[in-house]
Amino acid sequence: MISLPEPDTRTLARRREIAAALARIVPDGVAADDATLRAFDSDALSAYRQTPLVCVLPRTADQVSEILAFAAREGVRIVPRGAGTSLSGGALPLADGILLTLTRMNRILEVDLENRCVVAEPGVTNLGVTKAVAHAGFYYAPDPSSQIACTIGGNVAENSGGIHCLKYGLTTHNLLGVELALLSGERVRLGGKSGDCGLDLLGVVAGSEGLLGVVTEATLRIIARAPAIRTLLLSFASVPDAGRAVAAIIGAGIVPAAIEFMDRRCVDAVEAYCAPGYPKDAEAILIVEVDGLEREVEEAVTRIGAIARGAGATSIAASADEKDRARFWSGRKAAFPAMGRLQPDMLCMDGTIPRKALADVLERMTAMAEEYKLGFCNVFHAGDGNLHPLIIFDVMKPGELERAEEFGAEILKLCVSVGGVLSGEHGIGVEKKALMGEMFSEIDLAQQERLKCAFDSGGLLNPGKVFPMLHACVELGHMHVRGGRLAFANLPRM
Amino acid sequence: MRRVRVTNETEAAEAVRAAAADRTTLEIVGRATKRALGHPVFADAGLDMSGLTGILFYEPEELVIAARAGTRLVEIEAALAAKGQMLAFEPVDWAALYGGVPGQATLGGTIAANACGSRCVKAGAVRDHAIGCRFVNGRAEAVKAGGRVVKNVTGFDLTKLMCGAFGTLGALTELTFRTVPRPDRAPALVLRDIGPDDGLAALRLAAASPLEPTGLAYMPRGIRPEYGRGAAAIRVEGAAEAAAEKLALLREKFAGHETQILDDAEAGALFRDVGEGNFLADTETDIWRLAIPSSAASAAAREAGAALWLADCAGAVLWLGLPATEAVATRLRGIAARLGGHATLMRANEGARASLPVFQPEPAARASLTGSVKAAFDPLALFNPGRMYGNV
Questions:
Q1: Which residues contact B326 (CB under 8 A, 6 or more apart)?
Q2: What is the pLDDT of residue B127?
């Protein structure tokens, strides 16, 4: 079970006063009654719920600045939130914390086709960016599965990926700049249309899970849509065969837009759910998508087909038209709901492993599932090694949530032990913070926490997330620097 | 200056511990090929990292390589080339620019200076390909960050922070990179005898096409006599057929212009010269680099007023041969500030680099943050004091 920082009783007692102060900043955007607040009590990691102290919904960057400055002045914790689609509890509220919800800051500020970028407020949805430029043949590449709802601010916080990262990168690779509101109320520009200079603070803000500052504006790279896209559906009699095919495709120097893997359990579940017509009796299937110019794509389809045959594929189909493509993808995209209906509850895990470890990891996971007596399946962004085991359970059955969480934790430890990481694209949030020690030493973690202190010396911004233990900045030897100068720089400190 | 040469991470940490104990500042160097970039560092001692060499692992099928920070870039590139791969950001060593011998630059120095070439217009910079590292911080602790896989949101991305930090935050000991397959073909189309306005507009048009160009440079009159009023070079990549198709589409798009096809070797040489700054390097001039939105490139080039200049990255990067004077600094920084960009003094004598800001000065709130971040890694300000800004 997770632990959150102990609520501050004095802050809890000041709820009305804090709500009134926030209402002076955002007159029409403060909720402080329990009925309304319950709507914000969790994100997509819905096993965990906590009603916030108060929720504020600013419309402008100036309001965000004022809210942060207020929180810093009063020593009140603050949790930023976009659409609340985090699967790791990154936006889980705190009982004594202001929930800073950014969904009303949802304007596209600029579409600059000549410089191939869009400037957007943090509450614009991921798909909203693409919609703003689709008419001109452009799109925004990162495509997390929640893209219809999730917001750009949240994408920056979690460094969101999607199925096309192999070729087009994650949020961080498509993010040119942000305006970041700091707890001081000041706003700094990190990068922009011309990229950044100085220390790469933009690089650490991407994926910082709302611990460093609040994004009030983001400049995003858009790219021209490829004229041709084709998708192959490949099936295999064994997981190692599918793994070999992935290695061979990449080894041949092909960079597909996506390579998705589904195991037999997952295929069975989606066949029962929406009948995409996937090959029967396949132990594993791969969906491989290639994009580019017509002839380039044709050539890649031919080569991938030959490679798959060489790796022992039991069936190979290439999309002839958009209808085929949609059908091939329909099963993959229905994987979550298809698994979800088999049991009342589901945990979607997220780790990354070196691709070569796939067969071994899946085999060991199957053994674990038997031990924990839980159903599960695997979808896998095979191109970049990002694994999403879906564990199904029933929270009403005593002990099942705990067993599911334990199983999930064991899977992530396994990922780390084969050279992988705890999170590929969902973030650590509250879900995985207890596991950070699997990957990092105390020294490694202290260095990261010191970076947080450089942005937030009071530990007010999204505390209780990412790090297994909360340390006060003074414990870490943090020194406050003002105007680039360290006070008493000649004193010995280590 | 005393120089401590270390050959492994433990020795590096020892050297930093000793420096911290007696408060001696350290200039971190690899093979010292880019010492002339940044403010001159007057440290008490040198920390020579060039003895930390060797590839730690290279797994071509996983598209990943890890090496010690003092490993020479040419060794890495040779190992990758043997397996048909490369670093996507087209690393440069700026040897001609700083009067060095090509092939000496180390991996650590390349990261610290974020030294990438023309391909970054498509592939991103060094920071987009470095996925993990180890370094010794100013507390003499060996710290690990990131991992060996690309998709990773496990804690803060400290590896990116090390890219372009010029050794002000820590002494890098190990680095892990993602690699990409080397394309079968990488030819270029050159539009000849084309002025800056039209040439840069052509590059922007190509950048916005689905042809995924991996080099977009403009060379005005005076760079090469045979180019007449100037030349716009567009590099494309792919398997043989795809590359040919892309060239054909470009020719169609720019029908009416005088064009020339460069084969892979010629295109590679041209873009190497662009990324390395070679067209300006062998002159006596001081050199600035201006980063701006590409749509503003021709106007900014005019306003900058350099006789010798060229544009990379579709105009988002301008190399300018201009003196390192207060007046030029004010002019370029004004242009950069107005356009939301930045100007860097790439080459000048030590005196000029001591008196002028080398990097675009930061607004107060940002400068304060930079100082806090520096202190979070190097609380005693031991490393490369003042290389970038103030004591950072």
A1: B356
A2: 96
